[in-house]
Specification:
Blueprint (H helix, E strand, L loop, with lengths): L12 H16 L6 E3 L2 E2 L14 H12 L5 H18 L26 E3 L2 E5 L3 E4 L2 E4 L2 H7 L7 E7 L2 E9 L4 H16 L4 H6 L8 E4 L2 H4 L4 H9 L1 E3 L1 H96 L1
Antiparallel strand pairs: 1-2, 3-10, 4-8, 4-9, 5-6, 7-8
Helix pairs in contact: 1-3, 2-3
Protein name: XH/XS domain-containing protein
Pfam families: XS (PF03468), zf-XS (PF03470)
InterPro entries: FDM1-5/IDN2, XS_domain, XS_domain_sf, Znf-XS_domain
């Protein structure tokens, strides 16, 4: 069944029931899968959406809500089938509160607690070969073990030591993200397939010389051996939902922080734009003032030049008149 085209195509009302029935049969056959871990569920019809993991009740509410919404016919049919499947086929594995008659006052069943892992994601490695050398027990180093486990992308491998030396055990640290969880589970799955997991280690009386390992969980965390002490010192217990919710909170905080930073930058940008406009206006006023001053100066110079020219012309005319008057005066004197 192609789920990627659900939103782009639709069904008539008469076809929804038939499509719901087919989807329900597919869910019963295990394709697509709904349950991921003992207490973790996913909606197979909302791949790529914001919320990837649900508790049982949350997924049931999601399926009922979408099934009764105004979404497309295929989307509603698939989610109705999912709600039907959750209620009729897998609800028996989820603790629920029974309806008690007045005469039936038996204690309510206690919900099964979610499995807790050591976080950051951590695995335990045991049965590392050791030998007595130079007065102490020695064994393979963490760097060599990390190289041997390179296919699982460990961040670090820490060998554990006591007063006598190497204990033959090590802690394998993986990335803190979901990729790290995937690597840790792949490490555990690989050893379980080889019958070198935790159950094999605890059950076998005669153990092979191979390495045994598993992902650290609550029982390892509370143990009193060096492994438990190290886990309590370096990590904490969390469920898958705890980690998912914490990442969601961190993402919300990051989005809020980025939004705040963007708002601050936009405010600063507006303030700079206002200051720039003020500076432009001030500069324009100065330019206008300089222009007027320069214009007045030029006009004053022109006026002075004109006055000087006028004075020069007047002086020249006066000199000519004086020169013309001198011969006349001399002639008059001679006549007399």
């Amino acid at each position: 069944m192609d789920y990627s085209s659900e939103e782009s195509s639709d069904l008539s009302d008469s076809d929804i029931d038939e499509y719901e029935a087919r989807s329900y049969m597919n869910l019963k056959s295990g394709n697509p899968k709904v349950k991921r871990l003992s207490d973790i569920y996913r909606c197979p019809f909302c791949v790529g959406k914001k919320k990837l993991v649900y508790g049982y009740k949350d997924l049931l509410q999601h399926a009922i809500g979408v099934g009764s919404s105004n979404r497309s016919g295929k989307v509603k049919a698939n989610h109705r089938a999912l709600a039907n499947f959750m209620e009729n086929d897998i609800s028996v594995t989820v603790p629920s509160i029974p309806q008690l008659a007045d005469e039936d006052k038996r204690p309510l069943p206690t919900p099964k607690p979610a499995k807790k892992f050591v976080w950051p994601w951590t695995a335990i490695l045991v049965n590392i070969p050791t030998e007595w050398k130079n007065g102490q027990v020695v064994g393979e180093s963490g760097s060599k073990l990390k190289e041997r486990l390179s296919r699982f992308n460990p961040v670090r491998v820490i060998t554990l030591w006591n007063d006598e030396g190497h204990t033959g055990t090590a802690i394998v640290e993986f990335g803190r993200d979901w990729a790290g969880f995937k690597d840790a589970m792949a490490f555990e799955d690989q050893l379980e397939v080889q019958h070198h997991g935790k159950k094999d280690w605890c059950a076998a009386e005669a153990k092979s010389s191979n390495l045994y390992g598993w992902v650290a969980r609550a029982d390892d965390y509370v143990s009193t051996d060096p492994i438990g002490k190290h886990l309590r010192k370096k990590g904490e217990l969390k469920t898958i939902i705890d980690v998912a919710e914490e990442e969601s909170r961190k993402m919300e905080k990051l989005v809020a922080y980025m939004k705040d930073q963007l708002d601050t930058r936009n405010r600063q940008l507006r303030e700079l734009e206002l200051k720039s406009q003020e500076v432009d206006m001030c500069c324009q006023k100065m330019v206008d003032k300089l222009y007027l001053t320069h214009q007045a100066y030029n006009e004053e110079i022109q006026l002075k030049q004109w006055l000087a020219k006028e004075n020069s012309t007047q002086s020249s005319d006066d000199n000519v008149n004086k020169m013309a008057a001198v011969p006349v005066s001399a002639a008059q004197n001679q006549v007399e």
